[in-house]
Amino acid sequence: MRIGTHIIPKYRLQSLIDDTKKIYEQFNGRESEPEYIAHTLGHQPKSGSFVQKLADMRSYGLIDRRGKISVSELGKKITYGTESEKTEALDKILRNIPLWGIFLDKFGVNIKEETFWVDLAQITGVERLEAQTKANEVRKAYLEDVRYYKPVEKAQELPEPKNPIPEPLDKSENKMIDHPERVEASVEDKVRPESIEEIKFGDIRIWIPKQNAKAVIMAKKLLELYEEGITKDAPTAS
């Protein structure tokens, strides 16, 4: 069926997935001639129903588009993939039908029948009469195809960890201090966070955030200031 510039496959997705599974099992992923595929699916090689079925399977991306017929990677994943692979494959398969991709983003798996024709007319650009005439058929085809659809969970991007080493500021005046404060504390008394890397040299222990070049530069500056402070405080020879 066609509505505007959009073509909707005649065969529903679940039946095509079942046929894809038959082809995959029969030929073990190898490509084959159309007549052998036709007999596997119970069709005559030159029948209109078989030609239409192949066209629909290509539209969904279940079989490769060129040369002899073979099951595509999406077809393999949707039939014999892990649960996560099947979920991702189904999302891609549905979106291979451009109109279905629009519906997924706009409606999800629920479409209100009463006002659907209005949205259909706006999306496809057809006249209201055509939208009202075809709305029910389009809606049923879509809902049939997405009945097993589950949204793909996208991994959330974690924010970059903040530098746990505070800037050497004088809180009272909000200015850089002359020298870092000396703190007498035992390293063993503190628990090192997993995000902190410890540099050891004899009795010297330095904690720096892992893979943080800015923190390394800051540590070098603090050590220089610390050294300068020790030098100033050291007693002079008489």
Q: Any overview of this molecule?
A:
It is built from nine helices and six strands, in the order ββααααααααββββα. By secondary structure, it is mainly α. The strands form three sheets. It has a two-stranded antiparallel sheet. It has a two-stranded antiparallel sheet with strand order 3-4. It folds into two domains: 144 residues, Arc Repressor Mutant, subunit A (Orthogonal Bundle), CATH 1.10.10; 65 residues, no CATH class. The N and C termini lie far apart (102 Å). A hairpin with a 2-residue loop joins β5 and β6.
Task: Produce the secondary structure layout.
Layout: E1 2-3, E2 6-7, H1 13-27, H2 34-41, H3 48-60, H4 73-80, H5 83-95, H6 98-107, H7 116-124, H8 128-145, E3 169-170, E4 175-176, E5 196-201, E6 204-209, H9 213-233
Antiparallel strand pairs: 1-2, 3-4, 5-6
CATH topology call of the largest domain: Arc Repressor Mutant, subunit A
Q: Shape from CA axes?
A: elongated
In percent, how much strand structure appears in the residues? 5-15%
Assembly type of the chains comes to single chain
Gap between N and C termini, in Å? 102 Å
Give the H and E element order. EEHHHHHHHHEEEEH
Share of helical residues: 40-55%
By DSSP, the count of extended strands is 6
Helix-strand category: mainly alpha
Which stretches are low in confidence, meaning pLDDT under 50 for 5 or more residues running?
170-177
CATH architecture of the largest domain: Orthogonal Bundle
Mean pLDDT: 83
Largest sheet data: 2 strands, antiparallel
What is the CATH class of the largest domain?
A: Mainly Alpha
Radius of gyration: 33 Å
Number of domains: 2
Count of helix runs: 9
Strand order of the largest sheet: 1-2
